[in-house]
Design brief:
CATH superfamily of the largest domain: DNA ligase/mRNA capping enzyme
CATH architecture of the largest domain: 2-Layer Sandwich
Structural class: alpha+beta
Radius of gyration: 27 Å
Bound molecules: 2-(butylsulfanyl)adenosine
CATH class of the largest domain: Alpha Beta
Helix content: 25-40%
Strand content: 15-25%
Largest sheet: 7 strands, antiparallel
CATH topology of the largest domain: D-amino Acid Aminotransferase, Chain A, domain 1
Number of domains: 6
Distance between the termini: 46 Å
Length: 703
């Protein structure tokens, strides 16, 4: 792989490579997590994220707007109309043991005491001691899906998932079917009420659901949380209704015209009086001592209830104090999630197998004798890569410790050496791909092992799945199952094959009829007109996500100009630099990819940007920001993060992820990054709001 030519040499470029690796890895796992197909435990994800945060802090120039550090949660899926959350749905900071809980309590006290001292003798601000009844409201931390439900004049009008916290997906149709959630509030409902809470599936209902899945020959859901997520995101609300979801309401999001309250506990009581389901284990507790006793008690009882909770949420009860403590970029300072420690069990490691991912990565995983741990039965667990297996030295036949910490996918901690068969040998990574039988390769300095056979059926499927995706060529009526069938039945040998499908033969296949074949044919035909940026994204070029694909398309205009561009020209592209340029160049130089491009060209694909004047052809807009660097932080009303970046790039500016002395302006929306604002203020960079941003885009001038 090419490495950046930096003045300080190896160390900096090694960090750059690692940052990019981590960004890609975390984005990959984050997408899998939100698609309910996680492959690594949350703990590993958090460790990787921490490593990335530390590296990005040292090298702010490497912070890319697409970096997983720049967003909270997953982007909403456009299949369900986007819904803005006002105020945003925040996350919670975690305390992993009682010490961390105490430390949080201390911080809260210090912050409030400092505020009081600042107010001086004039009018002392109240502290926790003045607050009255109880210091803390303590609730269960339900392990489900956060949603926001809006009532107008007492009638349910909209429900949305949390999404990335700012924008979620409209799931009103599904939520209406949840029996716990009233369609009409009782009593004196306010003009507008938005409540937040967790959609869950009770354990008993979950078991019934999996029994039904088994009867129908469908796959079982791994746990109630996944099943709840799958049930909520159904297009057909009848399916959701069948699933028997439940709901717990734990937070007031927004209200207009209702009574005002001074505490969380009072608010919960009011929500309950309106007919909303508030959990009976939500309690007001006097002080930290009572909180500690309570969390310890519930830790013992964590499997006694008919629903899962992975900890408790401790909230400062007094709303006035909450207001003074405020929030940071991710979560409120007035609340903390006390998470239960992971649970561990031992079981037999039956075998270590290797699975092949969509771009050929070979991942070893443990096949286990099924064991019940942390509320689910576990039969497989990822082992990540060759080094991980070696570090843990787990061997087929070993008794191993399996841990599951509130996360979806469990991990193998290590072997119980005292129970090891003395004749056992260390596991050796297989030489050949289990799918295509060709040799696997591990590049020097990399942790991943790869199947490098371009024609491995798993990779063909991976390329086609990505190519047809909604953000790519948007070919509908072609799900994973059918791609799999077409590839294994020899109807489809790669992406180009999509444009040469034998529809007569498909019409004879089980599950297809004339209408579905026509739909498929029309969708494939329509994709030929997709603009260049979508095609570039669809080609699975390393480093080319949606944003880079748009920038690349706007910079060159058509595929031939990209084919002709040398690495220097590519490195000039906004935000690219030598590493991305080398990766793009290498991809276009690969003979397989050349053949692919020429094959696609012959089928009549457009391979150009949209008409000049469209957003894709960047040069059409007045270059008001030429040479200016504008940083955006926090949620804007009229732009998504990507749209704001596009708006800046399209006007000739650059939109880096961090503030420096050369930044022309920092645009702040709701909940901006505190460190960015501090940096801007200390460097004399103007901090502007969305209206001023719009003016800046239009005129290139700050108001
Ligand atoms: S309060 C601004 N209370 O935990 C306050 N959240 O890790 C934010 N959760 O996204 C949330 N039980 O999905 C709150 N009793 C509870 C909760 C709870 C579960 C979830 C919620 C949130 C996540 C944060």
């Amino acid at each position: 792989m090419a490495v950046a030519d930096t003045a300080d040499g190896g160390a900096a470029s090694a960090s750059a490579a690692r940052v990019r690796e981590l960004q890609a890895l975390l984005n990959h796992h984050s997408a899998l997590y939100y698609a309910d197909k996680p492959e690594i435990p949350d703990g590993d994800f958090d460790r990787l994220l921490k490593e990335l945060e530390a590296l990005e802090e040292q090298h702010p120039e490497l912070v890319h707007p697409d970096s997983p550090t720049q967003r909270v949660g997953a982007p909403p899926d456009t299949a369900f109309a986007p819904v803005r959350h006002q105020p945003p749905m925040m996350s919670l900071h975690n305390a992993l043991d009682l010490d961390e809980l105490r430390a949080w309590h201390e911080r809260v006290h210090r912050a409030l005491a400092a505020g009081t001292a600042r107010a001086g003798g004039e009018q002392a601000l109240p502290t926790m001691e003045d607050a009255g009844v109880g210091d803390y409201a303590v609730e269960l931390k339900f392990d489900g899906l956060a949603i926001s439900v809006r009532y107008e004049d007492g009638v349910l009008v909209r429900a949305a998932t949390r999404g990335d916290g700012r924008t979620g997906e409209d799931v009103t149709h599904s939520v209406r079917t949840i029996a716990d959630i009233p369609i009409r509030l009782q009593g004196d409902a306010p003009a507008v009420l938005e409540v937040r809470g967790e959609v869950i599936l009770r354990l008993s209902t979950f078991e019934q659901l999996n029994a039904r899945q088994a009867e129908r020959g469908e796959k079982a859901y791994v746990n109630p949380r996944n099943a709840a997520a799958g049930s909520l995101r159904q297009k057909d609300a009848r399916v959701t209704a069948e699933r028997g979801l439940s709901f717990w309401c734990y937070q007031l999001g927004y209200a207009e015209g209702g009574p005002t309250f001074s505490s969380q506990m009072q608010t919960l009581q009011w929500l309950k009086s309106l007919g909303l389901p508030v959990n009976q284990y939500s309690v007001g507790l006097a002080d930290l001592v009572a909180v500690e006793a309570h969390v310890t008690d519930f830790e013992r009882r964590r499997h006694d209830l008919d629903y899962e909770f992975d900890g408790l949420v401790v909230k400062v009860d007094d709303l006035g104090l909450q207001g003074r403590l405020g929030v940071d970029a991710k979560a409120p300072r007035w609340a903390i999630a006390y998470k239960f420690p992971p649970e561990e069990r031992t079981t037999k490691l039956l075998d270590i197998e290797v699975s092949i991912g969509p771009s050929g990565q070979a991942t070893p995983f443990a096949r286990l004798e099924p064991v019940f741990v942390g509320g689910v039965t576990v039969a497989t667990a990822t082992l990540h890569n060759e080094d991980q297996v070696a570090a843990k030295d787990v061997r087929p036949g070993d008794t191993v410790i399996v841990r599951r910490a509130g996360e979806v996918i469990p991990e193998v901690v290590g072997p119980v050496l005292s129970e090891r068969d003395p004749g056992s040998e260390p596991w050796v990574f297989p030489r050949d791909c289990p799918v295509c039988g060709r040799p696997l390769q591990r590049a020097e300095g990399m942790s991943a092992t790869q199947c490098v056979n371009y024609w491995c059926p798993r990779q063909i499927r991976g390329r086609v799945e990505h190519f047809v995706g909604r953000a790519a060529m948007d070919i509908e009526f072609l799900g994973e199952r059918n791609i799999d069938r077409f590839v294994s039945e020899g109807l489809l040998d790669d992406v180009v094959g999509l444009y040469k499908l034998d529809f007569e033969e498909i019409e004879q296949m089980e599950g297809f009829g004339q209408t579905s074949v026509n739909n498929l044919r029309n969708s494939i035909e329509a994709s030929k007109q997709q603009p260049l940026s979508r095609l570039l994204f669809a080609l699975s070029i390393p480093e080319i996500g949606q944003v880079n694909a748009q920038v690349l398309a706007a910079a060159f205009g058509d595929i031939d100009s990209i084919l002709a561009a040398d690495s220097d020209a590519l490195a000039e592209v906004e935000g690219f630099g030598p590493i991305i340029a080398a990766s793009v160049r290498a991809w276009f130089d690969d003979p397989h990819n050349r053949t692919l491009i020429e094959g696609l060209r012959k089928t009549g694909l457009r391979m150009e940007v949209d008409e000049p004047g469209s957003a894709e052809a960047g040069e059409a807009l007045p270059q008001t920001l030429a040479g200016m660097s504008v940083v955006v932080s926090g949620a804007l009303e009229g732009f998504s993060r990507d749209e704001a970046k596009q708006a800046i790039l399209a006007r000739g500016g650059s939109a880096p992820g961090s503030v420096s002395g050369r930044t022309a302006a920092l645009v702040v929306g709701a909940d901006p990054g505190a460190s960015k604002v501090r940096k801007a203020e200390s460097s004399g960079v103007p901090v502007i709001d969305e209206a001023a941003f719009q003016q800046l885009l239009d005129t290139g001038q700050l108001p």
